[in-house]
Amino acid sequence: MANESGTNLPVLSGGTLCPATLFDGQTHFGVAVAVKADGKESYLMIPDATNITKGQPVYITKPVTIKGEHLAAYLKSKNVSMPDEVKNFLNTTSISCDAFYFSKNERLLNDAEKTVWLADHSGDSDKDTKVTTIKVDDGAFLMMFELKFSEGLIGALTKDEDLGKLFDITGASLRVLRCRDSSKKILEEYAALLGEE
Questions:
Q1: If you write DSSP's letter for every residue of the chain in order, what string do you get?
Q2: S-S: 62 plus which of 33, 42, 69, 105, CB 3.0-4.6 Å?
Q3: What is the spatial distance between Cα 189 and Cα 59, in angstroms, rounded to a whole number?
Q4: What is this structure's pTM?
């Protein structure tokens, strides 16, 4: 059982996170959108679509990978012209969204945070008004993307096999993370969910 800003979020069998706040006797609207790429299926889960702005999460259940060669074929079918270097690059690339988890939980600054904020903005003429309305988001946010280059980036772009053998770039990753201590457990459980087969 995880705790995110006072909301228990149990991980249920079958690989879905289900907020305990859904078990309140009220009617909730949830959506699961099946997404398929590279022969593998994932779901974009919105367990409580009516309460996303109140902290209910949105997330994918499995990584989703797009083969660059399919993107190149799609662009070609739409008559999008590309330099040969870009075509070569796309034909040896895969792009994956390895993780996506978002929850929003805005709150007003507490007294200690207001003190720090006022010190940081001591020169502002309207600082006293602003500090009473400034909010912080305690919700969790995680996005992870990975690029893989099967022939290496330099080799694919230059078509210089000798240069590619000398030195090449085989991949790159990008991670965007916002996680306060109150969200750490739920993101750990989410990462475990992504690792299940």
A1: -EEETTEEEPEETTTEE--GGG-SSS----EEEEEEETTEEEEEEETTGGGGGGT--EEESS-EEEEHHHHHHHHHHTT----HHHHHHHHTEEEEEEEEEE---EEE--HHHHHHHHHHTTT-TTHHHHHTT-EEE-S-EEEEEEEEETT-HHHHHH--HHHHHHS---EEEEEEEE--GGGHHHHHHHHHHHH--
A2: 42
A3: 12
A4: 0.70
Output the six-digit token pair for 192: 């475990």
The pair of structure tokens assigned to 14 is 């079958």
CA distances from 21 to 29, 77, 143 (A): 13, 47, 24
Asked whether 131 and 108 are in contact (CB, 8 A), the reply is no
Alpha-carbon distances of 8 from 13, 110, 181, 183, rounded to whole Å: 16, 22, 15, 11
Q: Which two tokens stand for residue 28?
A: 């909730």
List per-block mean pLDDT (blocks of 10 residues) for the chain, which spans 197 residues.
41 50 80 84 86 83 89 88 82 90 83 82 72 77 90 80 86 90 85 77
Instruction: Report the alpha-carbon distance of residue 184 to residue 140 in Å, rounded.
Output: 8
